[in-house]
Amino acid sequence: MTNALMTTMSYNEIAQLTGVYVGGSTVLPSLKLNRDAVTENGNKVPQGSYMVTQDGVNVYAKTALFRPFINSFQYMQFDNTAGKFSNKSIIVKSFREQAIDELGGVKCGRIDPKEFQIRKERNLVSLEEQDRQKSIKCYRNLYGTVTMEKAVTESGEETSVIDLPVLWRTAGVNFNAANNALKAIEKKKHYIFQHQLLLGEPKREKKGSNVYYVVTAEPILTEEVPFTQDVDAQIFQTFQEIIDRENKYVAEKWRSLTEKNKPFDTSAMSALELDDPLDDLLMI
To answer: Of the N and C termini of the chain, which has fewer Cβ atoms inside 10 Å?
Structure first.
């Protein structure tokens, strides 16, 4: 969807595009890495490509342009048996914020990796706890718009995606894929939404039988993207509303289990000891 078209849309229409539905749950399209060569329907698709769902259709491209609006973090625990996340924290924009979770804890019970390694070497961590820690990760949640000009659908039809609001969630080896690019933008004393990131073709890596793809993201510093009040400001506001809804939901569940009679106040949260997400690599 082009900016020219979006300028004719109402706020509610833009909100629906980005996943905010009145009376319903928040569903934002996700920018993902496709690791499969064949879909469940037997269609061949580009392996090691970027994928996003637009109008109910999966779209694939080897490269993409991503314009970041909000950089944030969230701890989540995945239950392999159930095939879904069993716990999640609020979304924070700094590691100095206390990432309370919906089961009444903090950071989904994740132990600092350096401390975890020390405990493990001293045989102070059970095998059950080791497995549980592996299931807990810190994710970088990047809210922004994606453009994929040379893309194809699952059926092989050529198509394109233009300025689609999405959530790009990264973890593990790709947690810091965009980190250097964001820092380069900030070094120019610019806001991150003033530049696009060029997402290069993911590099295929293999560790034992595990095949994974590593993303590269380069900031386009020579071109500044103008910020428009009639479109971009509304998209930015909608992203923040999505985060606020998520945090309210988690905070209410946390409060119901821990402090039923105490109002939740994010401004009063005490700072946590800094946690280096790069240490997640120790748990891959």
So the answer is: C
